[in-house]
Amino acid sequence: MAAVYFARDEELGRAVAVKVLAEQLAGDDTFRERFLREARVAARLSHPNIVSVFDAGEDDGRPYIVMEYVEGSTLADELQRRERFTPAEAVDVGLQTCAGLTCAHEAGLVHRDVKPGNLLRRTDGVVKIADFGIARAAETTQLTMIGTVLGTAAYLSPEQAAGEQVTAAADLYSLGVVLYELLTGRTPHTFDSLTDLAKQREAPIAPIRELAVEVPEALEDVVMRCLARNPAYRPASAAELARELEAASPEASTRPMTAETARMPSAGGRRIADRRLWLALAAAVALIGVVLAFALPRHDSGPSTPAVQPVRPGSSPAERARNLAAWLRDHSG
């Protein structure tokens, strides 16, 4: 569908990748316009797990996009060399992909073509999602080669394959297929034609542990839930899927959770936490009263003692609590 060239941005002194659409696709006006529009939407996404889009335009009638250059390989290339990933590696890929998808979904953009060929892994292990916007543009044209269709169809959600409305749940299904393949070395359905695919989609999917016994049951359950035919039975969001993968991981994650996957507490949770903080502050104030009763100078006997310094103010409840704790340490005993 496109050719990718390594180039250098002389203005900013950085390596970039330039994707130029094939001539037969460039000749389709509807595709060209939609491709450029979707590429510009993708350019607004900024996330460490998404390949950045720097520019989009046309040159001699050929649409192109200028993207971040990622030094590494696609997961498709890695699968050809290794066949399968360890459960811990698969979870790591899933967590990073979920972080990127959360950013895109919150911006109203569904990828529609999550597959190993669109997931790049840098030499340092960072995973980046590529080709946001291109898949949606491709849906408007019939100029796609059958090999490309077959290569993509294995990762399409049932609703997407049926031409129904596509939501973020479709990306979670596709990611589930990717994780299944990383763990077992094959996709849930294997086929040689689109007719075979239609038949296989009605057949049950082989449980992961039948093909890879080393995969923990909890991880198998999470991935199989992503592959539910009914979108309502899949995880509610990419952030929820990330939390489930984290809980099912055979090893503790070595990567810090991002803002997308490590959400702030709910409003109810915040209210409970705030109430507990204020109760603690109230108890501390009461304790200060007791301490002051013994620490303040007395006028009925002996020489006076130095006045007790007040508690330092704070800009937030948490800072005020810390200042109270420090004051108590300094003035007790």
Topology of this protein?
Elements lengths: L1 E8 L4 E8 L1 H4 L2 H14 L10 E7 L2 E7 L3 E3 H8 L4 H20 L12 E4 L4 E3 L4 H5 L7 H8 L4 H4 L6 H17 L9 H7 L7 H4 L5 H10 L11 H11 L18 H29 L21 H15 L2
Task: Provide structural commentary.
This protein has 333 residues and is an alpha+beta fold. The protein has helices at 23-26, 29-42, 75-82, 87-106, 134-138, 146-153, 158-161, 168-184, 194-200, 208-211, 217-226, 238-248, 267-295, 317-331, and strands at residues 2-9, 14-21, 53-59, 62-68, 72-74, 119-122, 127-129. It folds into 3 domains: 2-68, Phosphorylase Kinase, domain 1, CATH 3.30.200; 72-248, Transferase(Phosphotransferase) domain 1 (Transferase(Phosphotransferase), domain 1), CATH 1.10.510.10; 272-331, no CATH class. 47% of the residues lie in helices and 12% in strands. The strands form 2 sheets. It has a 4-stranded antiparallel β-sheet with strand order 1-2-4-3. The protein has a 3-stranded antiparallel β-sheet with strand order 5-6-7. Strand 3 and strand 4 form a beta hairpin. The N and C termini lie far apart (77 Å). Residues 140-150, 258-283, 290-296 and 298-305 have low confidence and may be disordered.
Can you give me a brief rundown of this structure?
By secondary structure, the chain is of the alpha+beta class. The protein is built from 14 helices and 7 strands. Helix content is 47%, strand content 12%.
